[in-house]
Each structure stands twice: as C-alpha cells, then as structure tokens.
Amino acid sequence: MVESKKVITTVFIALVLDLLAFTIPLPLFPRLTAWYLVRDSSPSSLLSRLLALSRSWRATLLSFSSQADVASKLLDDKKNWDVVLLGGAMGSLFSFCQCLISPWLGRLSDKYGRKRILLITMSGNIISAAIWIQSTSFASFLLSRLVGGLSEGNVQLSTAIISDVTTSATRSKSLAVVGIAFSICFTLGPSLGAYFASRPVPLPSSEDRLNIYALPATISLVLLFIETTFLAFRLPETRGYVKKEEAPDGTAMSGESEDRTSKQSVEDRLHKLAGIGRLHGLFLLFFSGAEFTLTFLTYDLFGASNMQNGRLLSYIGILAAMLQARHVRPSLSRLGELRVASFGILSCVIGLSLLSILPSQFVLASPTLSISALYAAATCLAYTSATVVTGLTAAAASCCDESHDQLKRGRALGGFRSRGQLGRAIGPLLASSIYWVQGPTVAYTTLAACLAGVLIWSRKDMEGRG
C-alpha cells in the first residue's frame, strides 16, 4: 500500500510545476494585448471590438463620477487603462471557465477516479500552452485561455486526493501544502515570466510564426509535460483510499478517526458545506478585487515601477508561504479551520482599511509613514492569503462522506471551488469599477466594509449551527 505521505509529496511537487506554468503568463497580459493591437489594428478585429467595449464601459462608469480629477486621470490614454482592464478581464474569463467546469470534474473524478481525470485535464493544459506558443492573433490567444480555463483541474483534484488519503486528524495540516504551493509559485512564477519575456525564441525567422512571448509559453509547456509524466508514473489512484488506511501502529483502522464527522447527519453536513461555500465565494469576491487593484494603487500614489511592484508582491508571497509552513498548519488542527479562516478575514479588513487611508494627504506627506502603512497592509494581506482559502478548503473537505452521493468528495469540492472561482471572476471587475468611479479611498473602504459584514454573518451562521 502506498503511504499517504508519499502521495502528498507527489501532489505537492505536481502542484508547484502546475502553478508555475499558470503564473508565468500573469504579468505579460497587458503588454501581450498591446502587441496584438499593433499587429491587428483593424476596427473589425476581435481585439478592437473588445477594447471599444472596454472604453464604452469606462465612459459609462466615469459618467457617474463626481471627481473631475479622477475622471481626467483615467481618460489619459498614456496609462493604457483599457489594455490593463482587458488583461484583467482575461483573468476573469479563466476563473469563470473554472466556475463552470469544476463541478463536472468533481463528479467525473468520483465516477472514473482522480488520476484518470487529472491526466485528462493535464492534456488540455498542454494543448492550451501549445496554442499560446503559436498564437499570432488575439483570437487564437483567447482560445488558449478558454481551453486552459476549461482544463485546469489540478488544484481541485489535488485537494480531493489529499482528502482521500488523510484522516480528520491530519487532513487540515496536509491540505496546507496546497496553500504553500500557491504562495511559492505566485512569488516565483511572475518573475520567471518577466525574465523569459525579454528573451527571444532561439529559432530563426520565428517572429511571424510564433507569439512574441513564445519562450515563456514554451517554458510553461515543458513544465506541464514534466508534471504530466511525473503524475502518470508516481501518482496512485486514491478514490476510496481512506477506507483501507492503516493506523500508525500498523493495525487496520475501523473508521474511528472519522466518527466525529459521521455522527453529524447528512442534512447537517450539507447545510454546513453550503455555508462554507457561500463564505468562500463572498470572501474571494472582495479579496480578489483588492488583489487586482493593489498595483493600480501603488502606481497612482507612488509611481511604482514594475520592479517595485514585483518586490511588494514577492514580499506578500514569501511571507504567506512562511506563515503557511510555520503557523497555519499547526493552527488548523489546534484552533479549527473556520476560526483560522475568520482570523484571516479580520486581517484582510484591517489591511484594506490601511489601504483606504493611504491616499490621504497626512499619510502621503511622510514617505516613511506611507511606505510603512503600505507594507503593514501587505502584511495583513499575506496573512489573509495564508489562512482563509486553506482553512475553508479544509473545513469543506471535512464535510465530505463517500458513503452518500450528495457528499461524495469530488462532487462536493467541485461545487465548493466553483463558488470561489465565480467570486474571482466578478471581483476584479467590481473593485476596479468602484476604484475608477470613486477613487481608492472609497473602493477600499467599501471592500473592507463588505468583508466585515461577511465576517459577522459567517460567525453568526456558524454559531447558529453549533
């Protein structure tokens, strides 16, 4: 029998490879869109029509703004707001595709096995990267994103696999490796993408046949090939694995580790799972908007360069990874998944409140105070990144029960992820709309107030169930 620790190690390595491939293109979207615009400036092209739609949406938003200085600033074509917005919309499109496909992937993995469905989704990711390499038109790049969004199942299925091979006593701590992989890759991946973006593909006469960022795309393709091969040879099928798990002393387990969960009725667990899913979606609705607009804020207030923004995001990623490894993993079992998640939401409220006061003249008048406030907010956001999604995912996994159809692990976690991805799809568009119309102070105050309301509601909801 394969040891659960070996399975978790295999999943972690595969996740790092997968998320590196996913994060490499993230910083390239705005410049990539500008490159397509130069190549195809025809008013009838798909890109031109989408940019016209973006300008129309921005003009509509600004018509509601009473701040002339904000409107004037946003109408400055030199800042390429429409190109940046379209880059963010492509990220939202990816998340929306994930929202649609996640429940289906969960059901299929329950029926046909985790490994088989995971390898099928990996083939879709490989096709997506191959299309990107050769996408010399915006339409073909959009096709690459669609294929990738409908194929990406690694995170969701990895969560199900870890839940398969762990007991209630070890599950939360083990699921924290997913968050660690995210923190590591969202720190390294964009930097790798920016590094390889400045280097041409070592092939003669490739400019007209390949994408301008064909080298980063090729790096992503290679990582995905390595990941697929690694999974094919190292990952066992884990569906139903927990039923055969052995205790530390080598004796067969009788399921006592799951007694606490099994004593709850199916209706209670379904109700709890639905509540956790709603909390997940609402949290990501507001948190993803804050993430998306953070670099807008630093550019507006401090004129931050790409390097300075990269340093800020790396600080958040590295700190989140350290918190995941040293604080979150032991805290999940000691304090409980939902309590840890609630602490993370509270930290986000504090961080957004700090961001809301950054534009004030009192803070901006002192460079030391303004930078200190920015990094204090970044520290709060790092704690949020380390705790909330990991805690909620572990709590959702604890509700699953393979003996009941409505609580089958793949299906349940697929629905849970779907709600979160819907929040990620809408959040950036919502937050940037408020930011552009009313400015950063109103935007971050609104996001903080909404998250505070979510936190109060979630605590009352959990107390009501208790």
Outline the structure in words.
Helix content is 79%, strand content 0%. With 466 residues, the chain is mainly α. The model is unreliable at 243-260 (pLDDT under 50). It comes from Kwoniella newhampshirensis.
List keywords for this structure.
466 residues, mainly alpha
C-alpha end-to-end distance: 38 Å
Q: State the order of secondary-structure elements, H for helix, E for strand.
A: HHHHHHHHHHHHHHHHHH
> Rg from C-alpha positions?
23 Å
Work out the helicity level. over 70%
- Mean model confidence by pLDDT: 83
Instruction: List how many beta strands DSSP finds.
Output: 0
Count of DSSP-assigned helices: 18
Shape: globular
Strand content: under 5%
Structural class determined from secondary elements: mainly alpha
Uncertain ranges: 243-260
What about the largest sheet? none
